[in-house]
Design brief:
Elements: H1 14-22, E1 27-31, H2 35-44, E2 48-51, H3 55-58, H4 70-83, E3 88-92, H5 102-116, E4 120-122, H6 130-138, E5 143-148, H7 154-157, H8 167-183, E6 187-191, H9 195-204, E7 209-212, E8 220-223, H10 225-228, H11 246-262
Parallel strand pairs: 1-2, 1-8, 2-3, 3-4, 4-5, 5-6, 6-7, 7-8
Length: 273
């Protein structure tokens, strides 16, 4: 039976997520950045809501995730947390707020937790951010890792192509996954890597592994909600399944509204005081 169908479960926790992996129940995860969307997703029964730095793209129109600031992430996270009654809320620590300085990483994580009320933070990278991950965990803040395609490192990679196709990179990714587990991370996101490697990683660690473009043999899946609902149409990678075409629905609604205003059909007598 799915977690959201069980009336005695009031809030998803890291412990519940671990139990879901152990019994083979898949974990569902979507992004959200505002109160209204988060409330809809939470009420539908999602397990994890990620306040992703993808807000930089879908909410602010930036080309990459790099420009979004810690203050902006806290704003989005606070809006989401206000709406959520059940899901586990994870917040991306943005670029430049944790890399290379474990003290700054700890300050960033604590600000997110204290000011937004979120339940965990997410960081990108493996061995190179080990010190920051350990420092955050030492304060009792749950950390979700992120390996494979790491959008905050886009200028290093120079492309959004599939990662870890070569043996050396695949070996490092597996080692990094084990390292993140040893450090104490409660889960790991694997983005845009070969399905065979993702299956291997999920079997090699005891913590949940959430995939995005990582095939079916991981412990759960995550998508950007604007992509999944068809609000954005320009980004259509192979791994994306579009469950609705809200861009078309919303466009028609606005066009109908404009027409009614122009034709003096809105408001009518029943819509007036």
């Amino acid at each position: 039976m799915s977690i959201h169908q069980s009336s005695n479960i009031k809030r998803i926790t890291t412990h519940i997520l671990q139990e879901m992996k152990m019994r083979g129940e898949k974990i569902s995860m979507l992004t959200a950045y505002d109160f209204s969307m988060a409330g809809i997703i939470d009420a539908a029964g999602i397990d994890i809501i990620l306040v992703g730095d993808s807000a930089s793209n879908v909410m602010a129109g930036h080309e990459t995730t790099l420009p979004i600031t810690l203050d902006q992430m806290i704003y989005h996270a606070t809006s989401v947390v206000r709406a959520v009654k059940r899901a586990f809320v994870v917040v991306d620590i943005p670029f430049g707020s944790y890399q290379g300085n474990s003290s700054e990483a700890l300050r960033s994580a604590i600000r997110i937790m204290k000011e937004s009320g979120a339940h965990a933070v997410k960081v990108e990278g493996g061995a190179e951010i080990k010190e920051s991950v350990s420092r955050i965990l030492s304060a009792g803040v749950p950390v979700m890792g992120h390996l494979g395609l790491t959008p905050q490192s886009i200028y290093k990679f120079g492309t959004y192509t599939v990662r870890a196709k070569e043996e050396a990179e695949a070996k490092k990714l597996l080692e990094d996954a084990k390292l993140l587990e040893e450090c104490g991370c409660f889960a790991i996101v694997l983005e845009k890597i070969p399905a065979r490697l993702a299956k291997k990683v999920a079997a090699a660690v005891e913590i949940p592994v959430i995939g995005i473009g990582a095939g079916p043999d991981v412990d759960g899946q995550v998508l950007v909600v604007h992509d999944m609902l068809g609000i954005t149409q320009e980004f259509k990678p192979r791994f994306l399944r579009q469950y609705a075409d809200l861009q078309a629905t919303m466009t028609k609604a606005v066009e109908d509204y404009i027409k009614d205003v122009k034709d003096r059909n809105f408001p009518n007598e029943g819509e007036s005081y």
